[in-house]
Amino acid sequence: MFSRFTALVAEVVGFGPQQIRPEDFTTHWRAITDSIATSDAGGSVSETDIPHHLGAMAELLCEEDSQKDSRDHGTMGLCLEFMLRHRILDTLYIPCKNDYPSGIRQEVLMFLIHMLGRMEQPLLPHVSVHQPVQKLIQLCGLHPQSPLALMEIQFLRTICLKVHDDTRLADFLLVDLPVKRSPLSPPSPSVSSVSPNNASQSSTSSPPVPTKTVYLVAEALQRLVNHNDSMVAMKAYECLLSCVSLRHEGVARVLASSQLPVLLASKLQYHFQLIPLSCSHTSIVGCNTGWG
């Protein structure tokens, strides 16, 4: 009781935490949308105020989250409510997809790293968070020598840490993706090759597209293990080990049927072959090494 009273007095006299103003959050967001809309073709995000406004929004969200009372568990602040209601992450994904203006994907990844890493409020269960996050994960590692690889691995590592703390969040990263058809696979039968009895049905319905369930984080990490930057590759392997150690039945089943076991086994074999024959087993046991 006394601590609450002293905290109230400190806030009144100006020594306590400042009150979060939701209008500041909306002002920063409007400035970002205006900057994106007026960006010149070929322009860089560093020539705009987008990094400043994204950083300010992340700070407001984290500060709002830290000021929540323990009795407010399950509720959300006004800034977070605005972000979810207006689907801000969905809007940010659109310029991120083509990295226009140049460099905005890095700034958005930094925004998510700060927000997901520092906020205690579970965010991934919200559809307006996990859907754009899923799309951003699928962009990671698509270009093997991308200068964004280090930022991408930090983004994926942040998600791995969150899921490791609460394995239920993995449910929002298990998705069904269409299976890419092999060039050697036979084409789908044309309408002319279908029997007359099924012609009308074939003309109105197309064959179902085959899909497979994947754990998005592991898929992205497997694309990054071959990066030229040894730091990126090492962190990708470390995050993959975190994925493997998850106590989640769905993730375990998906990873077991993927190429990940082969990848890890080949990496272990590679390291094993590097061990000198003259090396004692006691030296190996006491060796402190990593996946790099």
Automatic annotation (TrEMBL):
Pfam families per the UniProt record, alphabetical: RAI16-like (PF10257)
Low complexity composition-biased segments: 190-206
Taxonomic superkingdom: Eukaryota
Region annotation (Disordered) ranges: 183-209
Coiled coil: none
Protein name: Protein FAM160B1
